[in-house]
Amino acid sequence: MNAAIDKVVILGAxxxxxxxxxxxxxxxxxxxxxxxxxxGKARLALEAAxxxxxxxxxxxxxxxxxxxxxxxxxxxxxxxxxxxxAEDASLKxxxxxxxxxCRRPDSVVATNSSGLSIAGLAQGxxxxxRRNFVGVHxxxxxxxxxxxxxxxxxxxxxxxxxxxxETLAKxxxxxxxxxxxxxxxxxxxxxxxxxxxxxxxxxxxxxxxIDYLVGPHTGRAMAPLQTVDLVGWDVHKAIVDNVHANCPDxxxxxxxxxxxxxxxxxxxxxxxxxxxxxxxxxxxAGGRTVEVLEAKTGSYQxxxxxxxxxxxxxMKSLNRVGKYREAMRILASAEGMxxxxxxxxxxxxxxxxxxxxxxxxxxxxxxxxxxxxxFNWAPPCAIVDLIGARAAVEMxxxxxxxxxxxxxxxxxxxxxxxxxxxxDYGRTFIG
Length: 431
Description:
Rossmann fold; N-(1-d-carboxylethyl)-l-norvaline Dehydrogenase, domain 2; 2 domains; eight-stranded mixed sheet; three-stranded antiparallel sheet; 49% helix
């Protein structure tokens, strides 16, 4: 996979990720063949790709086709086969077997899985395909969010990993980290642990209030439950179920247990923004009036802004003028139940994210990169720096949260952890 590569096949081109990925590849100068089950869906996918790229010229770099008539020819000519089908292991393996029979021996096959086992998806395929098979997890929408996880499995050619990483970074403009092949990888493992904890808390504290309490002022571009609606409750369920089932020794496993009210809603087709009439945590009645879910009853009520909390409003004001350290000091010193709750959620994020170093991520910088450029969340090492490493250790111990080894080392040396600059601190402190 290098600068000479010019032909890419997208499987699942009519999906949200497939169309957006086509725009990314076409924008980087590749010729892209977008495949779907029928030409009608492929044409709609091309329109979506042009919309994502905001350029009619995308169509000059794109060909359309169907699986039945064009897969074998297109795959035989391509150097990259990028799979963006639904997050269904059986479906993906079915297509990989078809690809295995007609691909070039040196072609790269990449799955855009958001958390399935890469080794499991490669199982039963030819030696050649397994050596050239990787996960390339783009975040939605990839034409705007550049964070990318590259996931080899034990049989992936190491030289191939280096070439793919270079191409993703230099030609496609990605912020790339290499992760181990563990459920949900790094970004989704960390992000969905936090979002599912907040979903659990919503039953007691209310959707609107908990989103307000741990909203953008705590270092995220969007409130957590709004994010779940954007991603889709079905996707959220698939990711947390995967981690809960396949990481039995996870120190925060209880936070991956999907709330019962969400189980019921997903079974009834209530999936968030993708089902606007049924809604998620929020719903727009008649396309205008915002309603909010009452988690205990499953009913919707008109959205009423929560009563302001003093420390939250102070943090928002300070963050708006770039005084991030002062805002974090407000959170650290605020008193009362709500301040304790906000601290526990934020510290839980820091603890869990940086405990993944060595298990899934190679370095704390890798965790920072994917949480910043994949989730638009404040990097956990930056949060430790804002609090102070020694104070962070004391607070983690106070709340019974695991102290990551890299935080302990920083506290011992009274050292900074975050490798970015002040602009990176403020990337998501926008509340």
